[in-house]
Amino acid sequence: MLAWKWGPALAAGNTIVMKTSEKTPLTALYVCRLAAEAGFPAGVINVLSGFGPTAGNAVSSHMDIRKVAFTGSTRAGKQVMAAAASSNLKKVSLELGGKSPSIVFADADLDRAVRSTSMGIFFNHGQCCCAGSRVFVHEDIYDEFVRRFREHARDIRVGDQLDDSTDHGPLVDGIQFHRVMGYIEKGKDEGATVEIGGERVGAEGYFVPPTVFSSVDDEMTIAQEEIFGPVACLLKFKTEDEVVKRANATEYGLAASVHTNDVKLASRMAARLEAGTVWINWLVIPRDKDNFGLGVRPFSSNTKVPFGGFKQSGSGRELGEEGLYEYTEVKSVIMVSCA
Question: Which of 187, 253, 263, 319 has its CA 20 to 30 A from that of 37?
């Protein structure tokens, strides 16, 4: 996230004030120190640590700042946009929440679909704005998909994140831990079936195992709200039209993935899904080690490809030419000959 914003902002000739997440300020402070050591002039890159209502609002409403790029929740994004509008009407780009669908058709390569959708939701312990938390599976392969997905989730190792043998460390803090566990309990209460996970790991720490729910319907809370944790909802569908309608029935529109060997079907789905990014047969988020069994290193974050959301997943784009333009202004100059 830091590089996605710093890179184009600096390339376009801007100075930067970065308000860090109050949960993870040290990374930005360290990179700022590296920039100083590399020879960046004083004042070009500035880091501000603090909380959203104070430090964040100060940035969004500051009269000398002319552009704000924000990544976070939809609720906070609306506050940033309001502060920007009520101050100096500064430019705003927002990369916000999501409830991304992964759609698996009956003709898909099932092993690849299982591995890919697993990585799509369990990457970074599910703490990812484009996490594919709603997995729609065709009824003809649903039971087999659930079985394979459950077994794949069982192999994900939870523990010390500094241990190279670990796949999943803890959630970011106690607040997020209790939020995720609350959603898991809500899923149980509303009648979804826990295929695996569903209970904390150990008596201490904020460890939540990969949790897989089957027998999920669209009205359940876990199928509607962004959880931001390692919780997958497996839903059954019958037809293309049905799954498009259900996948789009959300306030979000950040990303989606489609798994099929039918090129025409894939193209239709890419056009019909209301999402800023659609992956075909490849819900790919960079990961070290074995990429959840995919066997190769994926390339979802190609810096040439713009990324951003539809609807309440945000506005504007990051990466690519479009991302660079977010940090520029267009000026028209019309000259009549002076001779």
Answer: 319
